[in-house]
Amino acid sequence: MTTEDFRSAAHATADLVSDYLAALPARPVWQPMDDTARRALLDAPLPAEGRPLGELLAAIERDVLPHPMGNGNPRFFGWVNSAPAPAGVLATLAAAAMNPSSAGGDHADVHLERAVVRWIAELVGFPHPAGGGLLTSGTSMATIVCLAAARNRAARRAGHDLREDGLAGLPPLVGYVTGETHSCVRKAAELLGLGSRHLRTVTTGPDGRLDPAELRAAVERDRAAGLLPFLVVASAGTVGTGAVDAFDPIADLCEEQGLWLHVDGAYGAFGRLDPAIAHRYAGLERADSLALDPHKWLGVPVDCGCALVRDTDELRGTFSLVPSYLRDEAAGALGWFSEYGTEQTRPFRALKVWATIAHRGRTGLAQDIAQCTALARRLGELVKADDELELLAEVQTSIVAFRHRAVGLDETGLNALNRELPVVVQRRGRVFVTGARLGEQEMLRACLLNAATTEQDLHLLLAEVKTAARALLS
Ligand SMILES: *Cc1c(COP(=O)(O)O)cnc(C)c1O
């Protein structure tokens, strides 16, 4: 390939991507793929011969770009998926052109990752010792990294060499979560051999927050039974309702009892940037570890999670293995990133994080996030003021949990209706919202992550939900 061939294809790509992004808001948010289009992708034959770049671009334009998930659109309220930050989109191309392995060494990507991890810690007000974190594929992986360190510390304190001997011979390690804790925590506990049976579900209050008195009682019960309590997982924004746990009383208990406090901030930790809700996060900085997702509220293009830890040695002591062929004095005192997590060859995620944060600055990011929380509170008010709808939880961050309460339906009927509603709304294509279960109730949950969303979009969302409900009821 000549430089000129590459350059002209790169310019064409830039045009294609710019046109795609510009056209998004006027298109349906999401539409099911028709069978032909789906089959064209699923059954694509392995190409025997190569094709020129121009043809590939045409195929992307024809077969791929017309069928997005929807999360680039300001009327997308589903799950926790943001629109991509434009600066992050551009940086992705440059990062791929360099294509390093960010495992360690003396090249720009490695040093930039140290810097952006420090920036992320600073944005959410978490202490950052040198080396105290790394970028991951997402919070699921960051949680495995943090919980592995927690497990290692607990075993060591019990006089047990986990890395050498494994779990055998150790009393069961017990962790504490709530009914609202994300499934990635259970997945991590299962993978780490802890057993989901040893995750206790602590009661939450009506505000969805972990009850510290219940937590204490559960820990004392397990100690009395000869088990080894070691971990509490608190949430800086639950995925269901956006509830933020009261960290200070939980951290007090963890300090007193020698438990590792892990906070899941995947969705909500960056909410601390908004002065209107910053008080909810008091005590977050006392956690032993924090997992969070720049690929959610910051809009860094997927994938990008982050694990932050208070004690760097715990992380390195859990993962460091330096085979002779990787010895490298140039890595400096902090060593390699691959000594702090599970991956050896690691992608250059730092550039898109750097670009996303540098483009908006702390002030711009805080404005964007404040805009989302203000809109979420407004949506909460609109739901409350509407006789056909019911707000199911206080709006603590930027998730609004609500349901349709059609007259004449009992709880079973309401659950059936609200379970069907999101799919009908999604297929109409004007807005996109998803559902979930909250306790015994099926609900809709609108997650606001896009600063381009307007109040008009909120009205449209509620109108669409009510129209879809009428269609289902008739
Ligand atoms: C998204 C999310 C996760 C999982 O993170 P991934 O980046 O999808 O791996 C965990 N917890 C919460 C609260 C989330 O919103």
Could you walk me through the main structural features you see in this protein, from its secondary elements to its overall organization?
The structure is a single chain. This protein has 474 residues and is an alpha/beta fold. The chain has a domain at 94-356: Aspartate Aminotransferase, domain 2. The chain is built from 14 helices and eleven strands. The strands form two sheets. The protein has a seven-stranded mixed sheet with strand order 1-7-6-5-4-2-3, with helices on both faces. Strands 8-9-11-10 form a four-stranded antiparallel sheet. Strand 10 (434-438) and strand 11 (441-447) form a beta hairpin. The longest helix is centred in the last third of the chain and has 35 residues, at 350-384. The chain is globular. It binds pyridoxal-5'-phosphate. Pyridoxal-5'-phosphate binds at residues 80, 138-140, 182, 184, 239, 264, 266-267, 293, 305. Pyridoxal-5'-phosphate is lined by residues 80, 138-140, 182, 184, 239, 264, 266-267, 293, 305. Belongs to the group II decarboxylase family.
